[in-house]
């Protein structure tokens, strides 16, 4: 029986003649690349651990070892056993250490991180970062400097954690004119929405639990207001459409005002509500927007639950693709940081002109196609109107929409709600420019029989 | 209003100082790379069309144009307007054309394709191919030759059409020890299973329709017997685990014997049946198997329907990821062929030693970890036993399983079927080595009260 588990015959000969058995030995003569890790928090600790644990596996791929030569750390990480690696409390010591080839920036934030990365570049070092805020806000400056110095700045871990979606768009789909990108790119937000739907809990209730569990920050603004997602979407849009990073033009709407009522109505209509980042290329310009979104329940992305992330990319040749995985966490994010290191190890000896451009497109051929203001974006809409139970309300509503060229796809009118005697009227519209919906909502709210604000949630079909 | 659509203020200045406006112009001084396309069938036609239509977009990314210098074609493709590009009826003319840098092999099959690719390599040309059979069966030979000559052989389009999954595993997940890969990697098979489940149709009925619609070949063996999927899985396993290509060791079981009864029972138990390729790394060796598989219905991959493909990859750092998209078709496959061309254009000027290795791992550090025979593979099982309606049958069944160390997860006993008076008994087992299930099935079939063969379908939970 045991002979079954051995290569035999032709295959054995094949092994013997062409491959060395067992462990990595092939390129042991090549010196390892020296890496400095700045920041030993969640991602830094994960990166250190993965580099240690999978050192052999990584070297078998990269053709050389990747050695952590120095770590800048202020607070020791209990999940990380550092023995033998020199540490410093000064991140700038890494950026200037002449021994170090690649600086890994994992301190987060804008200010020190920006200085650190620019200093590392200035010193001719390649940079790997997981810092979406830094790239979204200061990326244009950083990439310009990196080109000047002929170094690489890699940032796969900045978007969607362990999912190699930057690589997928920038290289895997490079044949395409990308039509749109849509993603669930904030795990905390998706966890909250999943709990609201599955357990009927309120936003505030789930948020409090997420904070207690450590999924959400003490200040959850970045997550629940969509700022974190907008950082990531800004990056995705740039590499998809070949435009400079323009975070300040992204439209951002959070999930804090979502009610279980809307979650349930959406469900009844065959939809799920997700906090979606959408970037779409149109003849007029680029839509760049983060907001709660109804998605048909039978779409794969509508079934991405809990803290998981997924990004859909629609290209003119590829059609729709989806990339799914853990969007955050110690080791998933480290997986992308280390993959970037392997990429840099391969590319660092190549002609800078022939490398994959930072933003996917050659820097001298980025497009000036403008980012559209939200009023000029187009989508379908879910509207919830609280109306008094009078005859003729529906006719008034329908006429307001029709006058503005807004076509209704379906209407669901619920029974009178006992506590307030109002009738919730739920409408789904066809696709239309947002300005028209704004006008319509204003007119609807002015109706005598309509009580309180009209709830508006965008709808995307993502075919 | 129109001023909203123009970059203004700081951003305008930014554009003017750093970027040229509008169309690609930056690298027009660099000569285009010259490509020869061999075969102008579905994928060849798609590749030609995408290269023409997206020429500007592609050059903006690649930094140089990609020009089709010659096409080898026997039968004209009505979907493809060739004007001005020289054609030949001799594929070998492409492999020897001194003008051509990259040969695109899209003729399919093993024999001529192998000769063509080897000839192209011999002549120092890089190769891009969509030919899974060629790579799975002759890849080791082809890659060895390519290394000798310092050329690249790229094959993203060989697996899962427009999904850049080769790149994802080989580069995007390079930090990981990959635990397993599982994929729906044959669109025809998935279309048939989807129709069987959604519409209660029989295998034969759906196959006939698929053939009429052109989804399935006149000889559907490769698709429905799992050979096409095994070719692709062989490639995925090599790049995931760093082992030579060993197609002859793959276990392959088709979907031809699946009944709607089993599809429905699976559904009742909360599962979907998919034709899955599974490659798993274990301490004993590598599992490499294609077969119908029950997957819990709430898994994303269980909801991949119709002709779509999806590949899950589980890494020790990344956790489970999933890559989804069109697995075949003119333009999705062309998307991957052209992405490979862009990659080759970038890498062709680099040091061959620093390129991404063909099989993800350095050729001198491939592993001799053996492929396990199917009897040594481990999975959970779905068993359907047709029993006479006698008391004590369940006890006999349970005792046969228990004696072989097979734990039962659940049992579903249906009512007596009217037409034959038999009771279908459906069992789900815990994970166990296949040899034990084989022994158990033999013993079960020998029972007096068991009628006909026991149906066995593997179950994977894919967490």
Task: Give me a quick take on this structure.
The structure is a homodimer of 463-residue chains. Chain A is an alpha/beta fold and 463 residues long. In chain A, 36% of the residues lie in helices and 22% in strands.
Structure description:
Chains A, B: L-homoserine binds at residue 217. Chains A, B: Belongs to the homoserine dehydrogenase family. Chains A, B: This is Homoserine dehydrogenase. The structure is a homodimer of 463-residue chains. The longest helix of chain A has 18 residues, at 132-149. The radius of gyration of chain A is 26 Å and the shape is elongated. In chain A, the strands form two sheets. In chain A, strands 7, 8, 9, 10, 11, 12, 13, 14, 15, 16 and 17 form an eleven-stranded mixed sheet that branches. In chain A, strands 3-2-1-4-5-6 form a six-stranded parallel sheet, sandwiched between helices. Chain A folds into three domains: 33-158, NAD(P)-binding Rossmann-like Domain (Rossmann fold, 3-Layer(aba) Sandwich), CATH 3.40.50.720; 165-326, Dihydrodipicolinate Reductase, domain 2; 375-459, Alpha-Beta Plaits. With 463 residues, chain A is of the alpha/beta class. Chain A has helices spanning 9-18, 42-53, 55-62, 91-96, 111-122, 132-149, 165-172, 187-199, 203-213, 221-224, 227-241, 260-268, 330-347, 393-403, 434-445, and strands at residues 33-38, 66-72, 87-88, 102-105, 126-129, 153-154, 178-184, 251-252, 271-281, 286-296, 308-315, 319-326, 378-388, 408-413, 422-429, 432-433, 455-459. Chains A and B meet through α1, α2, α3, α7 and β12 of A and α1, α2, α3, α7 and β12 of B.
